[in-house]
Design brief:
Radius of gyration: 12 Å
Number of domains: 1
Helix content: 25-40%
Strand content: 35-45%
Number of strands: 5
CATH architecture: 2-Layer Sandwich
Number of helices: 2
Structural class: alpha+beta
Distance between the termini: 30 Å
Length: 92
């Protein structure tokens, strides 16, 4: 069963966060979608994949990246509007 979520949270913009943490874990779990920084210090993730992998991905986000623990994590269902073609993209 496929599941799509929109995940938003506050995190300080740290070098390598999107590549080394978010995108790496998304690829390992076969999660497709997008991630981008939004002002001020916000991150928006659209993640689609199997229910089990999306749940694991969300757990990883809640655990944080090293000493950086996300604040104000918000999760809501998301209707897939486009084909992500099986990859996870970083939007600049």
């Amino acid at each position: 069963m496929k599941k799509c979520l929109k995940i938003t949270f506050i995190a300080s913009k740290i070098e390598g966060f999107l590549n080394d943490f978010i995108q790496k874990n998304a690829r390992q779990l076969n999660v497709e979608g997008t991630v981008q920084f939004v002002e001020p210090n916000g991150i928006v993730i659209v993640a689609c994949g199997s229910k089990e992998n999306i749940d694991m991905f969300l757990d990883i986000i809640h655990q944080g990246f090293g000493a950086h623990i996300p604040e104000n994590v918000s999760v809501e269902p998301f209707l897939k509007e486009k084909d992500y073609r099986g990859i996870f993209r970083i939007l600049e």
